[in-house]
What we know:
- Residues 5-144, 157-294 form the CstA N-terminal domain.
- It is found in: Cell membrane.
- It holds the Pfam family CstA.
- This is Carbon starvation protein A.
- By secondary structure, the protein is mainly alpha-helical.
- The chain has one domain (1-414): Amino acid/polyamine transporter I.
- Helix content is 74%, strand content 0%.
- It has helices at residues 2-26, 35-38, 50-61, 65-73, 79-104, 111-119, 121-153, 160-176, 183-207, 229-236, 246-254, 263-288, 291-300, 303-350, 357-374, 379-407, 413-432, 441-469, 483-486.
- Helix 7 (121-153) crosses helix 15.
- The protein is globular.
- The chain starts with a helix and ends in a 5-residue tail after the last helix.
- The relative contact order is 0.17.
Amino acid sequence: MYTFIGGVILLILGYVFYSKVIYQNFGVEPTRQTPAKALEDGSDFVPMNKNKNWLIQLLNIAGTGPIFGPIMGALYGPVAFIWIVLGNIFAGAVHDYYMGMISLRNNGAHLPELAGKYLGNATKHIVNIFAALLLLLVGTVFVTSPASLLAGLTPTTLNHQFWVGVIFLYYILSTILPIDTIIGRIYPIFGAILLFACVAVGITLFTSGNIHNVPELTLQNMHPDGVPIVPGLFFTISCGALSGFHATQSPIISRTVENESESRWVFYGAMICEGIIAMIWAAAGMALYQGEVLSNIIKEGTAAAAVSDIALRLLGPIGGTIAIIGVIVLPVTSGDTAFRSLRMIIADYIGYAQSALKNRLSVTLPIFAVSFALMFIDFNILWRYFTWANQVSAVIALFVASAYLMLKGKRFLNALVPASAMLYLVILYLLTEKIGFGLPMQLSYWLSLAIAAGILALFLHRVKTLKETKDATDPLFNDHLPINELYPELF
Length: 491
């Protein structure tokens, strides 16, 4: 119980103190004109107030990840709390903040464009592939999981296939319509349901006395199947701690932020809130089940089965149903912006303007055709590939942030240290897991270290070369200039 309470308090303190360090290090300019105002187009560039931006950012980044991931992460025991808290404050929230602000300073650019600018043009093509793969997997996973939960709440005539169709239709509309037409209007309602679900589950853990079942802090691995903490835990819990998916979402909000001074609340603050959500559901998983029981529930279905059982046991039929609806809100409000982000990334990559509805539709329909085909792949297989691609994207985003800060002459270790740590873990995961090479763990520890060190050396050489070869007037060094001077071709 005290480990859980202490973790939540540390997350709040992380926002109060560490977010200020990141905010000041970046060098925010409240008087600078943002892309939302300079490039307003009535579709993607639309000024919105900071609270609406915060809520949309939270709902965008908080898919099933901060619920399904922590429930599965609960199998490891209280060590999951350590990763959520430290990962969130020092990696995840830093990742989200820098990606949002670097995108804002680059005309609302998405991760592939930013990787091309700061890591080299060849990187841009690789990142485009990763971003497209990640967003396709996210969108598809976030059709399957809410459809399963909805089918469990409704009559048998409204089965899984019916809800898949309904969710796909909503995703298509939210992908092609202006951001304030659907997303900006219904998200406050979704947000209220989400907050009710999380607060209700959190409070009921205490009032029911189940909170006393949560083990106190230990580094012992409690996973019933003996899955190693390293690298397993860091891929089981991503959203809530560190998630590359967020690098595809922050640029959406970078196009709607009215003032740079709002960035700390919108980007860093939303991630801290997601961390608290993750803590609540991880605690619920530990409080209500012994590890083997929870493991069997997940194996027999998915984490969705555990979510339903937890909500109904803690809150009863009515409250539990509302809580399940709150959980459904999370993947739906991430799936819609996953597809929206994918549309914008593809359009940016091929230089295809998106102001006209027919243009947006011509990019959107092929995306959904591919996603529909992916629906026939087993959910658990999709999830494994998603988790790896997700953390690779986080590594790329943190290296982009590190390069940006180094080129600006700012403190960069707050981005480079988590980037290097996660780089090691994604290599280790690829070497040891079945989706990769399946090598022995002991060999992979050292091999991963050598490969990661080599990539880090190449990165540092790349940034050093950029600093030495670029003219001081290059936009790499001068994004503090007004947008109309940085991008005269747009005006």
